[in-house]
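Lay summary

Proteins are chains of building blocks that fold into shapes. Our project writes down both the chain and a compact code for its shape. Here are two examples, one after the other.
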Amino acid sequence: MSKAEQNRQLIMDYFAAWSAGDVEKGESYYSHDFVSYQAGHSALAGVFHGKQELHDRWIAPLLEMTGNRWYVSGEPEIILAGDDGIVVIVHETMERDGKGKISTDKLVVYTIRDDKITTCRMYDGDQGAIDDFWS
């Protein structure tokens, strides 16, 4: 199996964990020096250094604000898979009391090293709508 195929499988397994709502397993795919970037201007936008900071400043608040109503599609659309990374489009749906429901197609660029995700860059299709949803 080529490195690109291994990276494709790693990302499919990673999204299967998130689709099942298994936060701990999803976070286990991150390297010790993981960095994540979320585009936008909301409280959930920014740069997150390490999986703990991503959990504390992005995942936990998102789950709290949605009352655990954050749904990640299990089958991302793979745009490009290479030896050191992968680019996907993933469909997410979130619900918030007082805000209703919103869906987004998110472009995500991953860098992978030693079978771990080292960087994650997330860009929502309608960033303004997502920023409004989180305000």
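And here is the second example, written the same way.
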Amino acid sequence: MIDNKRIAKNTLAMYFRMFIFMGIGFYTTRIILNTLGVEDYGINNVVGGIVAMMTFFNGALLSATYRNITYELATNDLGKIKKVFGASLSAHIMLALLIFVISETIGLWLFYNKMQIPAERMNAAFFVYHFSVISTMLSVTIIPYNALIVAHERMSAFAWMSILDAILKLAIVYLLVIIPFDKLIIYSFLFFIVSLVDQIIFVIYAFRNFPESKTFCVFDKELLSQTLSFTGWSMFGNLAGTLYTQGLNILLNVFFGPVVNAAYGISVQVQGQVQKFIGNFQSALNPQIIKTYAAGDLDDMHKLMYRSARFSFFLMLILTMPIMLETNYILTLWLKIVPENTVIFFRIIMCSTLIYTVANPMIVANQATGQIKKYQIVCGCILLSIVPISYILLKIGFPAYSVFIVHFFVELICQYARMHMLKGQISISLSSCFTNIYKPILLVVLFSSVLPLIPFFLLEESFIRLLLTGVTSVLSTCLSIYCYGLSEREKEFLKSKLKRYLNNN
């Protein structure tokens, strides 16, 4: 049975967290870019990307840990939950050690032999690299504790942690400006300290609230085998995801240098902040998707999946349409210094993000079944094609933004593959997906885009045009969602809630 009250409560908590992060994130990015400069900002982005590329195991183990704990919580078997948690902790400690070995061998080889980093900044980049390695190892080790918090649906913990994290990141900005030392080294060190504090607090919270978190390493062969089997195939999919994000970042560095990495870093920063808006909504629904499957309630699972996909896309569209139209003006107001290519990078990346927003509920549904082998092989192979295709295009002289166009079209192909494979796993049909997800989405996009294009094309770039474009975008999108994006039952529910609210006021 769908727990609508818990979903609503968790959604509000996650949005509270998101608004804090979004505001602080935009402010600190501006100060950091202006303090470090475009080149150092790009160096920090690409060097950190090397370490991130070594952690493709991480997402796979996170998926396995989150899925297994959530599934066992539905059975209420505390003994089994403790064993699953202990086995997951053991696996993550082993992963952290593996990341260290890879980072100090393959990673260092990439750092010294393939990266385009000015000679006078190599020493600073070296410090950035190793602070990133240590931070990553710590964050990997405590993932089971975070997964436990999410599986218990205690989203308020993340919301309150956002306040502390925001304060600490503001402190980073202040110290970065006043400390008379190499700004890039200071930034990477302070960011490491903030990450360390965050991880410690999450562990303490888990210890105080969940008895299973006090279980330390468990070397249960059956559970480790189950976790690693699930992880093995998830790892393939996560390798693809890591390669096309950090791999593209490294390709851009090799062909164009750190200034283009700065443009990519800022584009991803904005995309990440916007995507958090949707991620918070989906984080509240994802545990319910898994729990309804564990309870054998496929009808409710389908409803949750369809609603999560549609509403996630609609929320993202409300946010992104005005930003995509007025990207140049918004970035100039925000950053003052806008690296070349940032505008076109961001617009194409957000188009791909809109597609992926719909994919997330399908990914969670597949993970709930545990039948991930074929799914990960097919989707992983499709996504892995992004890097070699991009390399060929850059090698023959295509511009930097061409890699993101490749990503967009490959993501479309992968989305079809996801739907096709879910047919036999959770008894859905392609026609049902089209009717409940894609038809309303296409209608909303078509009708909502007409009105905001009028001020965009008729007026010169200015604050007035930004306001008019923003207002018309939000109004036309909301109206289109109501007319074409909601079912009759959802419209009736919305009208009843609105009437109740008006009568109470």
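What can we say about the second shape? Residues 258-294 form the longest helix (37 residues).
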